[in-house]
Design goal:
Layout (H helix, E strand, L loop, with lengths): L3 E4 L5 H16 L4 E2 L1 H4 L6 H14 L2 E5 L5 H12 L4 E6 L14 E5 L5 H16 L1
């Protein structure tokens, strides 16, 4: 069971590069993560991947949503997590607002100037996640 399920689109090169860096930064600080591109069998069919992700999400304590380039799949994961009572934390920058339908779902939004510079906000993000896990 992971502490945090990270949802970030697999359809954008930026997200494919960013999510593992974010995951590594969290794990270096003792927060275990389920990162779908790493931990879900990407060779399976769509239904298998969906089931595997939903199981991992149900077993995680928190959903961490990266909002840059978010797709409909992210929105579905937001709704599922909210529906089963998981806290949602959104990470975004000043140019990417929280989607309208997700505005009432989140426990916390971390807005930063530059998402690429993880070192600036990782401590704040970790503190937020740890508070929600306690």
């Amino acid at each position: 069971m992971a502490d945090v399920f990270i949802t970030s689109t697999l359809k954008s090169k930026w997200n494919l590069d960013f999510a593992p860096r974010l995951c590594a930064a969290l794990e270096m600080r003792g927060i275990s993560c389920h990162l779908p591109q790493r931990d879900t069998n990407q060779a399976g069919d769509a239904e298998s991947k969906c089931r595997e992700n939903l199981t991992a999400l149900a077993n995680a304590q928190i959903l961490l949503g990266v909002l840059l380039n978010a797709t409909i799949n992210s929105g579905l994961e937001f709704g599922y997590a909210h529906g089963i009572g998981k806290p949602l934390v959104f990470l975004t920058d000043e140019n990417h607002p929280v989607p309208v339908m997700a505005e009432t779902m989140y426990s916390q939004v971390i807005k930063v100037k530059n998402m690429d510079d993880i070192s600036i906000y990782i401590d704040n993000l970790c503190n937020c996640l740890k508070q929600l896990m306690s």
